[in-house]
Amino acid sequence: MSLFVHNEEGDNYEAEINGVRFVCQEVTPEYETTATALAEAYKKKLPQIVAFMLDDITAIFGDISADALTEALGTPEIDLDRSIISYLEQTLDDSHIIDVEYGDNFEELYEVIIDG
């Protein structure tokens, strides 16, 4: 039985593992293993991800501590097709979506995109 469930509304597949939501357009054989590994890695790498985001976040939202940002990010959504972490439920404001492009199980962080 697959971890991923088809979401008719979003026309994609979704799974949630350890509080991390995963999405993809089509489920490939390796995505379940990848999602499980990324859920584990996300918890370990969250402080580094937050540190990477901090300058971009403070440029838009003003001064915020790493701890406050971690709390404000909400549930991460990881797009397995695009290697992007999205924070759709962040509580810094009501209008922005925050994305972080990553590689190699979060060992590499490339870009922060704040859209809204």
Helix/strand layout:
Blueprint: E1 5-7, E2 12-17, E3 20-24, H1 31-61, H2 66-73, E4 77-79, E5 84-87, E6 97-103, E7 108-115
Parallel strand pairs: 3-4
Antiparallel strand pairs: 1-2, 2-3, 4-5, 5-6, 6-7
Description of the molecule:
- There is one protein chain.
- Helix content is 34%, strand content 31%.
- With 116 residues, the chain is α+β, with helices and mostly antiparallel strands.
- It has a 7-stranded mixed sheet with strand order 1-2-3-4-5-6-7, covered by helices on one side.
- Strand 1 (5-7) and strand 2 (12-17) form a beta hairpin.
- The longest helix has 31 residues, at 31-61.
- It is globular and about 40 Å long.
Describe this protein with a few key phrases.
globular; seven-stranded mixed beta sheet; alpha+beta; 7 strands; 116 residues
| Total count of strands | 7
Strand order of the largest sheet: 1-2-3-4-5-6-7
Overall mean pLDDT score?
95
Radius of gyration, whole Å: 14 Å
- First CA to last CA: what distance? 37 Å
- Please state the overall shape, judged from the principal axes of the Cα atoms: globular
**Helical content band:** 25-40%
- What is the structural class? alpha+beta
Please give the count of helices: 2
- How much of the sequence lies in strands comes to 25-35%
Order of helices and strands: EEEHHEEEE
Low-confidence stretches: none
The biggest sheet, with number of strands, parallel, antiparallel or mixed sense and barrel status, is: 7 strands, mixed
